[in-house]
Specification:
This protein has helices at about 40-45, 50-55, 90-95, 100-105, 105-125, 175-180, and strands at about 5, 15-20, 20-25, 30-35, 70-75, 80-85, 90, 130, 140, 150, 155-160, 185, 190. The longest helix has 20 residues, at about 105-125. A hairpin with a 2-residue loop joins strand 12 and strand 13. It is built from 6 helices and 13 strands. It is of the alpha+beta class.
Length: about 190
């Protein structure tokens, strides 16, 4: 089990992202803190998901490319988020945007890029970890040395009994894959 921290103990965090389901801050010690919205916690409860158990799950520690929580963050007795190391790199979207015309014209460049991603996904899948929002390219970070890291830990599914409420916003209508048994056992439970 990871260490617990109280949300009120963080002094002057710098807001770096506001999303539909969370806020992300940079702390003075350069860690990142993700705080989910009350709506996410209500949806977890309604779906039988323990957000706290998800944050304390250690299965992903076996996949070094997944950025795991350093601490669980609580507001009173409720787990509302987690801290993680700051990953200094560029998202897959930005990485691709920085390709030269020559690189964009070379399909081998893209094959190598996506092979790195596939390698991590396959390693995670062997451990029962599913990344339902894989098509959210901002959650895939390339480091200056070319290695890849996956963020958005709480959007992952850890085993067939776990569920994920976080879906890719890049894929359009969700029922196309949530109702398809190739991709989903049931709402929030992915293959």
């Amino acid at each position: 089990m990871i260490k617990k921290e109280m949300i009120n103990d963080f002094k002057e965090p710098e807001l770096i992202h506001v999303g539909e389901t969370s806020k992300v801050y940079r702390l003075q010690d350069q860690r990142i803190i993700k705080i989910v919205s009350p709506l996410v916690l209500m949806a977890c409860k309604a779906s039988g998901i323990s957000y706290e158990d998800k944050i304390h799950n250690t299965a992903a520690k076996k996949v070094k490319e997944i950025v795991c929580p350093l601490t669980a963050v609580y507001d009173g007795t409720t787990c509302v988020g987690y801290t993680m190391e700051e990953v200094k790199g560029v998202s897959l979207n930005s990485y691709d945007d920085n390709y030269s015309l020559s690189q964009r014209s070379n399909l081998n460049e893209y094959a190598k890029l996506y092979a790195k991603i596939e390698e991590v996904v396959m390693k995670a899948n062997k451990l029962g970890i599913v990344m339902p929002d894989l098509c959210t390219c901002d959650n895939i970070i390339f480091l200056p040395d070319g290695s890849v890291k996956f963020i958005d830990f709480d959007g992952m599914q850890f085993g067939s009994r776990d569920k994920s409420l976080f879906l890719s916003t890049s894929l359009g209508e969700q029922t196309q894959y949530t109702d398809n048994r190739k991709y989903s056992f049931s709402l929030g439970s992915f293959t």
